[in-house]
Amino acid sequence: MVATAANTSVPSRHAPMLIIGLLFFIFGFVTWMNGPLIQFVELAFELDTVNAFLVLMAFYLSYFFLALPAAAILRRTGMKRGMAFGLFVMALGALAFGQFAVQRWYPGALGGLFVIGAGLALLQTAANPYISILGPIESAAQRIAFMGICNKVAGILAPFALGVFVLHGLGDLKAEVQAADPATRSALLDAFAARVHLPYLGMAIVLAVLGAWIVRSPLPEVRAAEANAAAAQRDGLRAYPHLWLGVLCLFLYVGVEVMAGDAIGTYGRGFGLPPDETKFFTSFTLSAMLAGYVAGLVAIPRFVSQSRYLAGSAALGVLLALGAYFTRGYVSVGMVAALGFANAMLWPAIFPLAIKGLGRLTEIGSALLIMGIAGGALVPQTFAILREHVDFQFAFAAIMVPCYLYILYYAVLGHRAGRSD
After folding, report:
1. In whole angstroms, what is the distance from residue 406 CA to residue 311 CA?
2. pTM of the predicted structure, to 2 decimals
3. Phi and psi (nearest 5°) for 417?
4. How far apart are CA 138 and CA 135, in angstroms?
5. pLDDT in tens, 261-275
6. How far, in Å, CA of 363 to CA of 137, rounded?
7. Residues 6 or more apart in contact with residue 73 via CB below 8 angstroms
């Protein structure tokens, strides 16, 4: 029997939430490796900052290209088998990235990251609407906050794992490489690049095993057409302007999240801070996000609505981004890390507000929102290019403040556009 939000009891939601929580842990571990991975490719492939940021471009653009095909796949497979398929795709991507990184062939390594992102696009297109409509849509932010805690715990661990197994002694190695003759330099970089092989091979095995387990798990199917229908269902996505405004909102949100999380190491190096410290900065942002998720889990919807919490988070983002601009050194980096707290509840609030009332169009609407994850590719790349021409702090603030202002608009007015409820 297929479950709907209407007939899924609270106890029966616990097992699905734990299973989806495990998937969000995987999302976080894989996604938040990208920040320290920028420093890895910068040295292993001898790249400048703009080309190193192609790590984010390849990974996040996959969401743009694969989200709509993912929705079509999910209509055939159902959400459960679709999630398993996504894990298998991610396993192939991890194998490819590890192999091409060892060979120090950057286009192949970027291709591996693109495939990992493709698998994640399928997982995200299924998992986010699934958890949103597993219970009442008004409390979806609370459930997604729990998923966010799973995601960010993994995200905190990922930079440390990569730092310990791959990036250890990074500062000393950079000095050795710079002082070495061409033959020694090549040997040093080959050995450094080879460090990433075993971690990604292990990741591929875990992802494949998890995919096989998901197929046999007690995860029920959920019919979005029944669980997320408005009182008066309208034809066509054009009749839901709050969705389209939400796609742009999610695009900008992912951009600012990646800027605060993955670009923080590059931001810190702009002050001359040592690489052996900056490689861990992503974990500081994610720790702040974890605190933000706990706050949201407690507050929504008990004390404040999803939309009001979203507005407060966006306003805090504006203040912290300006604070980062007007301070220097570790204090400024701390302001950027604190953006994690402001960012924590943005996705959990935006996603359910944007898909509310879509009914049978929920899967395709969710796919459009997942396409918005491409903001994680374009916004940081804009920063990488701008910082070549203007002060990096000004470039950071000039990007972040307008993004948060739009998110504030969506929280106050945009999420109600075209809706009569």
Report:
1. 10
2. 0.80
3. -60, 125
4. 9
5. 988 988 999 999 988
6. 15
7. 82, 85, 122
